[in-house]
């Protein structure tokens, strides 16, 4: 069977990424995040929760030394395959967050599941759930990452995160501000995923409560992605 390969344009870079069953392909949100990050040559980059490897491959094409982690072995296999496809090398490590890695990195990027999904999980496939379900408030993985990250950052390290407003983004930002210097690098308005529009009453109630932020423009529902850069205080 021929591999499913798609072209992605990230800035002035053209990537070819293969997709495989069991690995969530780059979403519009992930592509926006990849477009926003300022990768630099001759730096060490860690991509946490690499998925299909769009961030890791992009960083490597910019000349960075890249390590990628994921809890799904199929994701690591696909990231390695996509690295070879694009003529770069990526060191992959199995495990959550920093796996068993030690030391610090110049740049840490993480596009983690951080959305509140409908309580009826059966409305999502298992693959979709593991890729987008961020827990009851949508941000439990981000909060855990914020606790661990300082141990792998030096005084000039940058932690780049997309903060989705389909989660309790205000709680995430408060947690970030507690221990980091926080800079907002970009804000993008992107259409919500189909599971949101299919269960819009659930999400409109969360919106009215101020937990999430979604809005309707000309019949299309949108959420926002805030790309933030964190440095140690």
Automatic annotation (TrEMBL):
A GO molecular function assigned to this protein is: protein methyltransferase activity
Biological process GO annotation list? methylation
Q: Which UniProt keywords apply?
A: Methyltransferase, S-adenosyl-L-methionine, Transferase
Keyword S-adenosyl-L-methionine annotated:
yes
Tell me the Pfam families matching this sequence. Answer: PrmA
Q: Where are the transmembrane segments?
A: none
Q: Does the keyword Glycoprotein apply?
A: no
One annotated Gene Ontology cellular component of this protein: eRF1 methyltransferase complex
Alphabetized InterPro entries for the sequence:
Euk-Arch_PrmC-MTase (IPR052190), SAM-dependent_MTases_sf (IPR029063)
This chain belongs to the protein called Methyltransferase small domain-containing protein
User: Which organism does this sequence originate in?
Assistant: Aliidiomarina haloalkalitolerans
């Amino acid at each position: 069977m021929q591999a499913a390969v798609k072209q992605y344009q990230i800035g002035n870079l053209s990537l070819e990424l293969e997709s495989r069953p069991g690995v969530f392909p780059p979403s519009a949100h992930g592509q926006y995040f990849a477009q926003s990050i300022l990768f630099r040559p001759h730096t060490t980059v860690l991509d946490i929760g690499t998925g299909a490897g769009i961030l890791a491959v992009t960083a490597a094409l910019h000349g960075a030394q890249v390590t990628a982690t994921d809890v799904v072995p199929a994701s690591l296999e696909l990231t390695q395959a996509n690295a070879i496809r694009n003529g770069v090398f990526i060191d992959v490590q199995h495990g959550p967050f920093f796996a068993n890695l030690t030391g610090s990195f110049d740049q840490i990027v993480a596009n983690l599941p951080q959305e509140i999904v409908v309580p009826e999980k059966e409305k999502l496939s298992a693959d979709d759930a593991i890729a987008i379900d961020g827990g009851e408030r949508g941000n439990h993985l981000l909060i855990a990452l914020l606790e661990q990250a300082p141990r792998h950052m030096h005084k000039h390290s940058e932690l780049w995160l997309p903060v989705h407003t389909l989660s309790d983004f205000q709680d995430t930002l408060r947690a970030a501000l507690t221990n980091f210097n926080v800079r907002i690098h970009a804000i993008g308005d992107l259409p919500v995923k189909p599971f949101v529009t299919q269960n819009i009453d659930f999400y409109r109630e969360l919106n009215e409560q101020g937990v999430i932020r979604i809005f309707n423009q000309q019949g299309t529902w949108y959420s926002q992605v805030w790309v933030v850069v964190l440095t140690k205080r």
